[in-house]
Amino acid sequence: MNIYEKLEESRKLIRESNAKKDGTNEFSKYSYFTPESVEKFVAMASEKTKISVLCNLKKDQFGYFQTLTLINLDDTTEKLEFELRTELGEVKATNKTQQMGSTDTYSERYIKMKVFQIKDNNLDFDSQDNTKPVVSNSKTVDDLDF
Known about the structure:
The strands form two sheets. The protein has a three-stranded antiparallel β-sheet. Strands 1-2 form a two-stranded antiparallel ribbon. The chain starts with a helix and ends in a 31-residue tail after the last helix. It is an alpha+beta fold. The protein has three helices and five strands; from the N terminus they run αββαβββα. 20% of the residues are buried. It has one domain.
């Protein structure tokens, strides 16, 4: 398979996994995919399709951005590159290094969700009534069989 076919197969594996959101926002009463679960989805699909995923937080004259590079492990000359702009996270009671770490972690999660099409309707405020708690009978990421 070429790199495009491998990306599509990875997306399909994740989409068909029926994974459960494993994080909960108690204040706003919704569930979401944690950075750890997104990492597991992508790692399992990448291993299955023989691609490598590299992420890096960078900064240029326009600000911060996360990059994601997909490499076809069967032909390492085949690569796809993606970018996602971000802002430096503001986390109370943390120093600048901790804020940078938070920015890197969350922007990596969002670029992986974008590239691998891991949809989260909680990020679309038109998609639901956010006043009701989310109930799910789906499997957790650890229960998935790719």
